[in-house]
Protein backbone atom coordinates (compact mmCIF):
# COMPACT_ATOMS: atom_id res chain seq x y z
CA UNK A 1 0.00 0.00 0.00
CA UNK A 2 1.42 3.37 -1.02
CA UNK A 3 1.20 6.57 0.98
CA UNK A 4 -1.37 8.03 -1.38
CA UNK A 5 -3.66 4.99 -1.76
CA UNK A 6 -7.04 6.26 -0.56
CA UNK A 7 -10.54 5.12 -1.49
CA UNK A 8 -14.23 5.45 -0.66
CA UNK A 9 -15.09 2.60 1.71
CA UNK A 10 -18.85 3.18 2.07
CA UNK A 11 -21.66 5.59 1.22
CA UNK A 12 -24.94 6.72 2.74
CA UNK A 13 -27.78 9.16 2.14
CA UNK A 14 -30.95 10.52 3.68
CA UNK A 15 -33.94 12.45 2.34
CA UNK A 16 -36.74 13.84 4.53
CA UNK A 17 -40.10 12.10 4.36
CA UNK A 18 -42.21 15.05 3.16
CA UNK A 19 -42.51 14.90 -0.63
CA UNK A 20 -43.33 18.19 -2.33
CA UNK A 21 -44.76 17.92 -5.84
CA UNK A 22 -44.52 20.43 -8.66
CA UNK A 23 -48.22 21.10 -8.19
CA UNK A 24 -47.65 22.24 -4.61
CA UNK A 25 -44.67 24.43 -5.51
CA UNK A 26 -46.45 25.84 -8.57
CA UNK A 27 -49.34 27.04 -6.43
CA UNK A 28 -46.94 28.87 -4.10
CA UNK A 29 -44.88 30.57 -6.81
CA UNK A 30 -47.66 31.26 -9.30
CA UNK A 31 -46.68 29.08 -12.27
CA UNK A 32 -47.94 25.90 -13.90
CA UNK A 33 -46.51 22.55 -12.80
CA UNK A 34 -45.73 21.81 -16.46
CA UNK A 35 -43.54 24.92 -16.60
CA UNK A 36 -41.40 23.63 -13.72
CA UNK A 37 -40.90 20.22 -15.34
CA UNK A 38 -40.10 21.72 -18.73
CA UNK A 39 -37.58 24.20 -17.35
CA UNK A 40 -35.88 21.90 -14.83
CA UNK A 41 -36.93 18.24 -15.37
CA UNK A 42 -37.76 18.17 -11.65
CA UNK A 43 -41.01 16.48 -10.60
CA UNK A 44 -40.70 16.30 -6.80
CA UNK A 45 -38.42 17.30 -3.97
CA UNK A 46 -38.24 16.68 -0.20
CA UNK A 47 -38.51 19.30 2.54
CA UNK A 48 -37.22 18.81 6.07
CA UNK A 49 -39.81 18.52 8.82
CA UNK A 50 -40.15 21.41 11.27
CA UNK A 51 -38.21 19.35 13.82
CA UNK A 52 -35.35 18.63 11.39
CA UNK A 53 -32.25 20.73 10.78
CA UNK A 54 -29.16 20.14 8.67
CA UNK A 55 -27.37 18.19 11.42
CA UNK A 56 -30.27 15.75 11.68
CA UNK A 57 -30.13 14.94 7.97
CA UNK A 58 -26.34 14.75 8.05
CA UNK A 59 -26.40 12.33 10.98
CA UNK A 60 -28.77 9.95 9.21
CA UNK A 61 -26.63 9.88 6.08
CA UNK A 62 -23.46 9.43 8.15
CA UNK A 63 -24.95 6.46 9.99
CA UNK A 64 -25.80 4.79 6.69
CA UNK A 65 -22.30 5.38 5.33
CA UNK A 66 -20.67 3.90 8.44
CA UNK A 67 -22.90 0.84 8.24
CA UNK A 68 -22.12 0.42 4.54
CA UNK A 69 -18.39 0.61 5.32
CA UNK A 70 -18.68 -1.84 8.22
CA UNK A 71 -17.35 0.71 10.71
CA UNK A 72 -18.52 2.27 13.96
CA UNK A 73 -18.49 5.96 14.83
CA UNK A 74 -15.58 5.58 17.26
CA UNK A 75 -13.40 4.46 14.34
CA UNK A 76 -13.72 7.86 12.61
CA UNK A 77 -10.67 10.12 12.88
CA UNK A 78 -11.99 13.11 10.90
CA UNK A 79 -15.57 14.28 10.47
CA UNK A 80 -16.08 16.85 7.72
CA UNK A 81 -19.48 18.40 7.04
CA UNK A 82 -19.97 20.41 3.85
CA UNK A 83 -22.96 22.73 4.13
CA UNK A 84 -24.07 26.29 3.41
CA UNK A 85 -27.18 25.97 5.60
CA UNK A 86 -25.75 24.98 8.96
CA UNK A 87 -27.99 24.66 12.00
CA UNK A 88 -26.68 28.01 13.31
CA UNK A 89 -23.60 30.25 12.95
CA UNK A 90 -22.06 28.50 15.96
CA UNK A 91 -21.27 25.76 16.91
CA UNK A 92 -20.13 24.08 13.69
CA UNK A 93 -22.69 21.62 12.38
CA UNK A 94 -20.06 18.87 12.34
CA UNK A 95 -19.86 19.07 16.15
CA UNK A 96 -23.59 18.48 16.39
CA UNK A 97 -23.23 15.45 14.12
CA UNK A 98 -20.32 14.19 16.23
CA UNK A 99 -22.46 14.43 19.34
CA UNK A 100 -25.34 12.49 17.80
CA UNK A 101 -23.02 9.80 16.42
CA UNK A 102 -20.84 9.52 19.55
CA UNK A 103 -17.83 9.94 17.27
CA UNK A 104 -15.60 11.10 20.10
CA UNK A 105 -12.29 10.20 18.43
CA UNK A 106 -12.99 12.44 15.45
CA UNK A 107 -11.58 15.90 14.83
CA UNK A 108 -14.48 17.84 13.31
CA UNK A 109 -14.90 20.84 11.05
CA UNK A 110 -17.33 22.39 8.57
CA UNK A 111 -16.56 23.66 5.09
CA UNK A 112 -18.75 25.95 2.99
CA UNK A 113 -18.07 25.69 -0.73
CA UNK A 114 -21.81 25.50 -1.45
CA UNK A 115 -22.57 22.85 -4.11
CA UNK A 116 -18.91 21.86 -4.58
CA UNK A 117 -18.47 21.21 -0.87
CA UNK A 118 -18.58 17.42 -0.86
CA UNK A 119 -15.81 17.07 -3.43
CA UNK A 120 -13.70 19.63 -1.58
CA UNK A 121 -14.28 17.55 1.54
CA UNK A 122 -13.02 14.44 -0.24
CA UNK A 123 -9.87 16.30 -1.23
CA UNK A 124 -9.27 17.31 2.38
CA UNK A 125 -9.94 13.75 3.57
CA UNK A 126 -7.55 12.31 0.99
CA UNK A 127 -4.81 14.72 2.07
CA UNK A 128 -5.26 13.93 5.75
CA UNK A 129 -5.22 10.18 5.18
CA UNK A 130 -2.21 10.37 2.83
CA UNK A 131 -0.09 11.56 5.77
CA UNK A 132 -1.92 9.40 8.36
CA UNK A 133 -2.58 6.18 6.39
CA UNK A 134 -4.41 4.44 9.22
CA UNK A 135 -6.96 7.22 9.58
CA UNK A 136 -10.55 7.19 8.37
CA UNK A 137 -12.61 10.22 7.44
CA UNK A 138 -16.37 10.65 7.27
CA UNK A 139 -17.33 13.29 4.68
CA UNK A 140 -20.92 14.55 4.68
CA UNK A 141 -22.72 16.95 2.37
CA UNK A 142 -26.01 18.24 3.78
CA UNK A 143 -28.30 21.19 3.14
CA UNK A 144 -31.78 22.41 4.06
CA UNK A 145 -32.49 24.98 1.37
CA UNK A 146 -36.24 24.98 1.95
CA UNK A 147 -35.65 27.34 4.90
CA UNK A 148 -34.05 30.09 2.80
CA UNK A 149 -36.18 30.07 -0.36
CA UNK A 150 -38.16 33.08 -1.51
CA UNK A 151 -41.39 31.69 -2.94
CA UNK A 152 -42.00 34.90 -4.85
CA UNK A 153 -38.92 34.04 -6.94
CA UNK A 154 -40.13 31.31 -9.25
CA UNK A 155 -36.79 30.67 -10.93
CA UNK A 156 -35.06 29.58 -7.71
CA UNK A 157 -37.85 28.35 -5.42
CA UNK A 158 -38.81 25.54 -7.81
CA UNK A 159 -35.32 24.02 -7.88
CA UNK A 160 -34.36 23.09 -4.37
CA UNK A 161 -34.97 20.25 -1.95
CA UNK A 162 -33.36 19.08 1.28
CA UNK A 163 -31.12 16.08 1.85
CA UNK A 164 -27.79 14.63 2.90
CA UNK A 165 -25.19 12.26 1.49
CA UNK A 166 -22.02 10.84 3.00
CA UNK A 167 -18.94 8.77 2.29
CA UNK A 168 -16.36 7.03 4.47
CA UNK A 169 -12.82 7.48 3.16
CA UNK A 170 -9.81 5.42 4.16
CA UNK A 171 -6.57 3.78 3.11
CA UNK A 172 -6.80 1.18 0.35
CA UNK A 173 -4.69 -1.48 -1.31
CA UNK A 174 -4.60 0.62 -4.50
CA UNK A 175 -5.65 4.22 -5.17
CA UNK A 176 -9.40 4.61 -5.55
CA UNK A 177 -9.45 8.40 -5.49
CA UNK A 178 -7.27 9.05 -8.53
CA UNK A 179 -7.25 12.79 -9.18
CA UNK A 180 -8.98 16.05 -8.33
CA UNK A 181 -9.56 19.43 -9.88
CA UNK A 182 -10.59 22.38 -7.69
CA UNK A 183 -11.28 25.89 -8.99
CA UNK A 184 -12.51 29.09 -7.38
CA UNK A 185 -13.75 32.30 -9.02
CA UNK A 186 -14.54 34.90 -6.40
CA UNK A 187 -15.09 37.54 -9.07
CA UNK A 188 -18.33 35.71 -9.90
CA UNK A 189 -19.42 35.49 -6.25
CA UNK A 190 -22.50 37.63 -6.82
CA UNK A 191 -24.15 35.02 -9.03
CA UNK A 192 -25.27 32.99 -5.99
CA UNK A 193 -25.65 34.63 -2.60
CA UNK A 194 -27.46 35.05 0.71
CA UNK A 195 -26.83 38.68 1.54
CA UNK A 196 -27.76 39.06 5.21
CA UNK A 197 -26.89 37.29 8.43
CA UNK A 198 -23.10 37.79 8.41
CA UNK A 199 -20.71 40.49 9.56
CA UNK A 200 -21.22 42.60 6.42
CA UNK A 201 -24.99 42.81 6.86
CA UNK A 202 -25.98 41.58 10.33
CA UNK A 203 -29.49 40.36 10.95
CA UNK A 204 -31.99 43.07 11.81
CA UNK A 205 -35.67 43.83 11.44
CA UNK A 206 -34.78 45.72 8.27
CA UNK A 207 -32.89 42.81 6.66
CA UNK A 208 -35.81 40.51 7.41
CA UNK A 209 -38.31 42.99 5.97
CA UNK A 210 -36.12 43.30 2.86
CA UNK A 211 -35.95 39.53 2.36
CA UNK A 212 -32.15 39.70 2.50
CA UNK A 213 -31.87 36.30 4.19
CA UNK A 214 -33.27 34.49 1.18
CA UNK A 215 -31.23 32.58 -1.38
CA UNK A 216 -30.63 34.58 -4.57
CA UNK A 217 -29.29 33.35 -7.89
CA UNK A 218 -28.63 34.79 -11.32
CA UNK A 219 -29.71 31.73 -13.28
CA UNK A 220 -28.44 32.88 -16.66
CA UNK A 221 -25.08 33.86 -15.21
CA UNK A 222 -24.75 30.51 -13.45
CA UNK A 223 -25.56 28.63 -16.66
CA UNK A 224 -22.94 30.62 -18.58
CA UNK A 225 -20.33 29.96 -15.87
CA UNK A 226 -21.03 26.22 -15.87
CA UNK A 227 -20.89 25.89 -19.65
CA UNK A 228 -17.71 27.93 -19.97
CA UNK A 229 -15.79 26.60 -16.98
CA UNK A 230 -16.87 23.03 -16.18
CA UNK A 231 -16.20 21.15 -19.47
CA UNK A 232 -12.54 22.27 -19.69
CA UNK A 233 -12.11 21.51 -15.98
CA UNK A 234 -13.34 17.94 -16.48
CA UNK A 235 -11.13 17.51 -19.55
CA UNK A 236 -8.09 18.77 -17.61
CA UNK A 237 -8.85 16.42 -14.72
CA UNK A 238 -9.07 13.36 -16.95
CA UNK A 239 -5.94 14.37 -18.84
CA UNK A 240 -4.05 14.70 -15.56
CA UNK A 241 -5.15 11.17 -14.64
CA UNK A 242 -4.20 9.82 -18.07
CA UNK A 243 -7.80 8.86 -18.82
CA UNK A 244 -9.84 9.73 -21.88
CA UNK A 245 -13.31 11.16 -21.39
CA UNK A 246 -14.60 8.24 -23.46
CA UNK A 247 -13.22 5.87 -20.82
CA UNK A 248 -15.40 7.28 -18.03
CA UNK A 249 -18.10 4.78 -17.08
CA UNK A 250 -20.18 6.92 -14.72
CA UNK A 251 -20.77 10.65 -14.41
CA UNK A 252 -22.18 11.89 -11.08
CA UNK A 253 -22.81 15.63 -11.44
CA UNK A 254 -24.28 18.23 -9.13
CA UNK A 255 -28.04 17.93 -9.57
CA UNK A 256 -28.55 21.56 -10.53
CA UNK A 257 -31.13 21.49 -13.32
CA UNK A 258 -31.92 18.67 -15.73
CA UNK A 259 -31.91 20.85 -18.84
CA UNK A 260 -28.54 22.33 -17.90
CA UNK A 261 -27.11 18.87 -17.20
CA UNK A 262 -28.18 17.53 -20.59
CA UNK A 263 -26.21 20.32 -22.24
CA UNK A 264 -23.25 19.87 -19.88
CA UNK A 265 -22.96 16.16 -20.67
CA UNK A 266 -22.92 16.86 -24.40
CA UNK A 267 -20.43 19.73 -24.17
CA UNK A 268 -18.14 17.73 -21.90
CA UNK A 269 -17.96 14.74 -24.23
CA UNK A 270 -19.51 12.42 -21.64
CA UNK A 271 -22.41 11.07 -23.69
CA UNK A 272 -20.92 7.58 -23.47
CA UNK A 273 -20.96 7.57 -19.67
CA UNK A 274 -23.94 6.69 -17.51
CA UNK A 275 -25.06 10.00 -15.99
CA UNK A 276 -26.65 9.43 -12.60
CA UNK A 277 -29.60 11.76 -11.98
CA UNK A 278 -31.77 11.94 -8.88
CA UNK A 279 -33.10 15.47 -9.40
CA UNK A 280 -36.43 14.34 -10.89
CA UNK A 281 -37.53 13.02 -7.50
CA UNK A 282 -35.33 15.02 -5.12
CA UNK A 283 -34.47 18.33 -6.81
CA UNK A 284 -31.28 20.29 -6.21
CA UNK A 285 -29.99 19.40 -2.71
CA UNK A 286 -26.98 21.71 -2.68
CA UNK A 287 -23.86 20.09 -1.22
CA UNK A 288 -25.82 16.86 -0.68
CA UNK A 289 -26.56 16.36 -4.38
CA UNK A 290 -23.34 14.61 -5.48
CA UNK A 291 -22.98 12.20 -2.50
CA UNK A 292 -26.72 11.49 -2.53
CA UNK A 293 -26.59 10.49 -6.20
CA UNK A 294 -23.41 8.45 -5.62
CA UNK A 295 -25.03 6.53 -2.77
CA UNK A 296 -28.14 5.81 -4.82
CA UNK A 297 -25.96 4.40 -7.59
CA UNK A 298 -23.99 2.34 -5.07
CA UNK A 299 -27.06 0.89 -3.36
CA UNK A 300 -28.72 0.26 -6.70
CA UNK A 301 -25.77 -1.96 -7.70
CA UNK A 302 -25.12 0.30 -10.69
CA UNK A 303 -21.38 0.57 -9.99
CA UNK A 304 -19.03 -2.34 -10.70
CA UNK A 305 -15.54 -2.91 -9.36
CA UNK A 306 -13.02 -1.18 -11.58
CA UNK A 307 -15.47 1.32 -13.06
CA UNK A 308 -14.23 4.87 -13.56
CA UNK A 309 -16.51 7.37 -11.82
CA UNK A 310 -16.31 11.10 -12.47
CA UNK A 311 -17.97 13.37 -9.88
CA UNK A 312 -18.44 17.09 -10.42
CA UNK A 313 -19.80 19.75 -8.09
CA UNK A 314 -20.25 23.36 -9.13
CA UNK A 315 -22.01 26.35 -7.67
CA UNK A 316 -21.83 29.30 -5.33
CA UNK A 317 -18.52 31.02 -4.90
CA UNK A 318 -18.29 30.43 -7.82
CA UNK A 319 -16.60 27.06 -7.43
CA UNK A 320 -15.86 23.79 -9.19
CA UNK A 321 -14.87 20.56 -7.50
CA UNK A 322 -14.30 17.45 -9.62
CA UNK A 323 -12.97 14.03 -8.70
CA UNK A 324 -12.08 10.92 -10.68
CA UNK A 325 -12.18 7.61 -8.83
CA UNK A 326 -11.78 3.91 -9.51
CA UNK A 327 -14.77 2.19 -7.92
CA UNK A 328 -14.48 -0.87 -5.69
CA UNK A 329 -10.92 -0.37 -4.42
CA UNK A 330 -10.91 -1.35 -0.74
CA UNK A 331 -8.50 -1.81 2.11
Question: What does it look like?
Answer:
The structure is a single chain. The protein is an alpha/beta fold and 331 residues long. The protein is 34% helix and 24% strand. It contains eleven helices and 14 strands. The protein has helices at 22-29, 33-40, 54-69, 93-101, 117-131, 154-157, 205-209, 219-241, 258-268, 279-282, 289-299, and strands at residues 6-14, 18-21, 44-47, 78-82, 107-111, 136-144, 162-171, 177-184, 192-193, 216-217, 250-253, 274-275, 308-315, 319-326. The strands form four sheets. A five-stranded mixed sheet has the order 1-7-6-4-5, sandwiched between helices. α9 (258-268) links the parallel β11 and β12. α3 packs across α4 and α8 (219-241) packs parallel to α9 (258-268). The longest helix is centred in the last third of the chain and has 23 residues, at 219-241. It is globular.
**Helix content range:** 25-40%
Largest sheet: 5 strands, mixed
User: How far apart are the termini?
Assistant: 9 Å
Q: How many individual β-strands?
A: 14
Spatial strand arrangement across the major sheet:
1-7-6-4-5
What order do the helices and strands follow?
EEHHEHEHEHEHEEEHEHEHEHHEE
Give me the secondary-structure category.
alpha/beta
As residue ranges, the low-confidence spans are: none
Strand content: 15-25%
The total count of helices amounts to 11
Shape: globular
Query: What is the overall pLDDT average?
Result: 95
Q: Give the C-alpha Rg.
A: 19 Å
